[in-house]
Amino acid sequence: MEFENLFNRKTSLFVDDFSQNISVIDEALKNSKILIIGGAGSIGQSVVKNIILRNPKKIDVIDISENNLVELVRSLRSDNKYTMCEFKTFSIDAGSLEFELFIKENNNYDYILNLSAMKHVRSERDKFTLMRMIEVNIFNTNKVFEYVLANNLKKYFAVSTDKAANPGNIMGCTKYIMELFLMERSKEFLTSTARFANVAFSDGSLLQGIQKRLEKGQPISAPKDIKRYFIMPEEAGELCVMSCVLGNNRDIFFPKVSDELKLTSFPEIIKKYLHKFGYDAFECSSED
Distance between CA 66 and CA 180 in Å, rounded? Predict the structure, then answer.
């Protein structure tokens, strides 16, 4: 993990869980045909890179970000530890007509992993992006259900969030409602999910913003009185794969709070991150 020293750990939170079950995971995914929706984001790419090591027969990746899909393909091709299976990417929206046509033509998957989500609380601030959040986090997931019911799928996995537990914002509410739909549909097919905390340096995250500000020579701002749990993208990928393969019907996987998973403040992380690149933080007393 590239930034493991920021969180005072050098191995994955799930290294023991994953190693103890690696033979089961490998056997389940070997020669499988897999569709990954939202597979070009930070978590999605980690899931793709984890699964491709298990020698699947076929992986199709859907994402609305054409650039992220291109980078995913380049990353896989540039690392010789990845043996490419039948691998295709499609820059389409999971709720679109194109997706419906795609899913009708491709009806032989063993696993579907749905990692698509709108995750920023700021998207609640206007009615237009709020409607889009509800569409992506709830209704698009429901659309995939219809495909699952029509085909002999081994498992459907949809990622959730820790904010679905006692949600305090609409984003958390949408994921909680998604879970309710998921549990209701579990009467008809096998499904599981995973909740986890902030994924460090994921696309659009505050910590990724630190990288961007540093690249552009801009000041860094962050709340000083808020602490968060953070996991790395690789850990998020491992948790999703374990939930998909090892989870029983209706299971929700999540990281267990331990000595390794501790609340961390943003200033603490920023100082360590700057020190990594040879800088010392200068704390300002105000925005001015």
Answer: 31
- What's the CA gap between 186 and 166, in Å, rounded? 22
CA dist list (Å): 212 to 198, 215, 216: 18, 5, 6
Of 147, 273, 257, which Cα lies nearest the Cα of 222?
A: 273
The length of the chain in residues reads 288
pLDDT tens digit string along 70-95?
999 999 999 888 877 899 999 999 88
| 110 close to 35: Cβ distance less than 8 angstroms | no
pTM for the model = 0.89
In the chain, where do the E strands start and end?
Answer: 33-37, 58-62, 86-90, 111-114, 155-159, 191-194, 198-199, 227-228, 230-231, 252-253, 264-265
> What are 158's strand-pairing partners?
114, 193
Q: What mean pLDDT comes out for the span 108-121?
A: 88
Q: Which of 263, 47, 44, 36 is nearest to 162 (CA)?
A: 263
- CA torsion, points 243, 244, 245, 247, in degrees to nearest 10? 50
DSSP 187: T
